[in-house]
Design a protein that fits this description.
- 2 copies of one chain form a homodimer.
- Chain A is mainly alpha-helical and about 140 residues long.
- Chain A folds into 2 domains: about 60 residues, Arc Repressor Mutant, subunit A (Orthogonal Bundle), CATH 1.10.10; about 60 residues, no CATH class.
- Chain A is about 45% helix and about 5% strand.
- Chain A has 5 helices and 2 strands.
- Chain A has a two-stranded antiparallel ribbon.
- In chain A, a hairpin with a 5-residue loop joins strand 1 and strand 2.
- In chain A, helix 1 crosses helix 4.
- The mean pLDDT of chain A is about 95.
- Chains A and B meet through helix 1 and helix 5 of A and helix 1 and helix 5 of B.
- Chain A binds a DNA duplex (30 and 30 nucleotides) through helix 3.
Chain lengths: ~140, ~140
DNA sequence: TCAATTCCTATAAAGTTTATAGGAATTATT
DNA sequence: AATAATTCCTATAAACTTTATAGGAATTGA
């Protein structure tokens, strides 16, 4: 399952992509209202997306958020990794968040294989799905 | 990510499958020691697997556990659903644990599709992977 | 009767997710 | 210069989930 946070992030990105043509940046408060996301929680999400270069933000009274890339350049793999972390279902098969299984001899492990297959199929799908394709 | 519990369950099933030819059932204490799983925690896991008809148990001094099906009839889809619940990454695309998204109009939802694809690919892999194939 | 097991329920401990609080820094406008 | 509205930041609370343990009841073969 993806987290609620990740779903909020996705909704926010889609909202920003839909309103990409506006001349001024978009307030987090507007997104929060329209998408029914808790305002303060959304702020921390948007900040994470900005830290990851997905969004551009500006401050002050006329501040707000904008996409920092074309909507077809923002992939679900990016989003999920930023917000939820690993996409793989086992730490030891994660490409971006690899970790050894504490009590598991990896060379003789018989279960890795199937989880690598799932990871690859999942990455293929999320990696070829952009925010633009979800409008 | 699958839970630690689910990984424990998988290890236990593989252990039981490996020792399927033994005349007597296998103690949870033996599995716990061999696979380094907390004993009491393992007991609750094995009970869940028994409740789901995956295992057969017998009580008393010579009691223990055995597979209740051929190892090639126990699929990863079964295991994961019993222990962790839904395989899908969104409640609204789960086949076995469907739930509506609270604030989401499902008919106009644009994100379901990609998660259905991931679900289908994942089910195809886990659904064609048996405990036997992991020995 | 004993010893060892499975079985059951409750609960503790630890960790994660979700959300809020309170304000600092910034910036256009008045 | 003051104001008002924003983003930004850190800390923490609240809720929930996962992981693990405790304490024994029921069962069964010897």
């Amino acid at each position: 399952m993806i987290s609620k946070k990740c779903k909020y992030a996705l909704k926010a990105l889609i909202y920003l992509a839909k309103n990409q043509e506006r001349p001024t940046p978009i307030f987090s408060s507007e997104i929060a209202e329209q998408e029914r996301i808790p305002k303060k929680f959304l702020e921390t999400i948007l900040r994470e997306l900005r830290n990851a270069q997905i969004l551009h933000s500006s401050r002050g009274k006329t501040g707000g958020y904008k996409l920092n890339k074309a909507a077809d350049q923002i992939l679900l793999t990016d989003l999920i990794r930023i917000i939820d972390g690993p996409i793989a279902m086992l730490p030891c098969v994660s490409l971006n968040y690899y970790a050894t299984c504490p009590e598991c001899d990896e060379s003789s492990c018989t279960i890795k294989g199937v989880f690598e297959k799932v990871r690859d199929e999942t990455l293929a799908i999320f990696g070829s799905t952009s925010i633009k394709s979800l409008l």
